[in-house]
Amino acid sequence: MSVPDGAAAGTPGRAEHRRGPQEAGAGQAAGTGEGHGGADRGRTPPDAREPGRQAGERYRPTDERDTAGARDAPEAADGRAAREELERLRAEVHDLRARARVYPLISQAQGILRERYALPDAESAFALLQRASQRYNVKLRTLAGVLVTVPGPEPGSGLWFPRRVRAAEPALGFARPEPGNRSAVLSAVLSRTLAVVDAEMGNVQLADRAAGGLRMERHTGLTADFVDFFGHVGREGTSCALAARDVAQVTVRDVESDPVFTEPARAAILAAGSRSCHSVPLTVRTGLCVGMVSAHAGHRLKPLTKARTEALDALGAEAGRWLTWYDRTVVRDALEYLHVLGQVGRGRSFRRG
């Protein structure tokens, strides 16, 4: 019960009020610590209350942890912002490196097209590449890589490949993708390999016609740093390079100690969480390696049985045969289309679509 202003508890002449059990309990629950006649003793004077605290609220001294938390909040926000900025910068660096790897190839292809079709500028040459790429769903880099490595059309010829014999698309035992869809085929190759090897991470690489070595085309479960580091690999220093050179499957059961890796490559693989890996070449009947699929595991891989090894050999052969068909059919269809556009628009400007 509150005491009216101007009246003190126990003032002579005032009728004494006895609290019932509920009132006493309420007084104690409110924190007065007093029974009858001592309602104001020990209570903080109204003018000494904390600003904004309502009458009847318990006084709670400021806890140092509260002020420490308040001080730490901006620091935590700054830390998050710094981490986000670092990730943004790293992604930007990865993107710039990827562009730097492909820029010389695109520039070379533009130069060839400008000379061949008397194009007025590099933009027109790029527009031709882009139109053919989009029409046949062929990566610009893939199209440029073939353009700079195959012989050009005969002067005055309406066709780039007049003696080409078209073949039917090879059937695949491990997938039934949409016709001519290379991305779907590579994804199926990777998924099937991971299932056979019992691994959770992996990538597919294809032979780089222009630069040599292998370039990454598909990946799953791997870090951005891994993809950046192994965007293009040469002929030495990795298990996939060894598998490509020997055209044979290669298993690395302990990445940390196997001598096949250069130290930078080893560090990049370990940083991605891989502790063992297995590489399978994608081959054609002549024995040529046209690509590679590699599985990475965060645990030590068990030795593959003969049946699993043979299944992976069959997978590599099927994938290699399909990729060869794709290059000879879909990619060359795109080049034929580009050739027609260049002849019809000879000397004229083209703009990107």
Radius of gyration, CA atoms, in whole angstroms: 37 Å
In helices, the fraction of residues equals 40-55%
Tally of helical runs: 9
Strand order in the sheet with the most strands: 3-2-1-6-5-4
How does CATH name the architecture of one domain?
2-Layer Sandwich
Structure description:
The chain is α+β, with helices and mostly antiparallel strands and 353 residues long. Among the domains are: 82-161 and 336-344, no CATH class; 182-329, Beta-Lactamase. 46% of the residues lie in helices and 10% in strands. The protein contains nine helices and six strands, in the order H-H-H-H-H-E-E-H-E-H-E-H-E-E-H. The chain has helices at 21-29, 64-117, 122-136, 140-147, 182-197, 224-229, 239-246, 263-271, 306-344; strands at residues 201-207, 214-220, 232-233, 250-252, 276-283, 289-297. Strands 3-2-1-6-5-4 form a six-stranded antiparallel beta sheet, sandwiched between helices. Helix 3 (122-136) crosses helix 9. The longest helix is centred in the first third of the chain and has 54 residues, at 64-117. It is globular. 26% of the residues are buried.
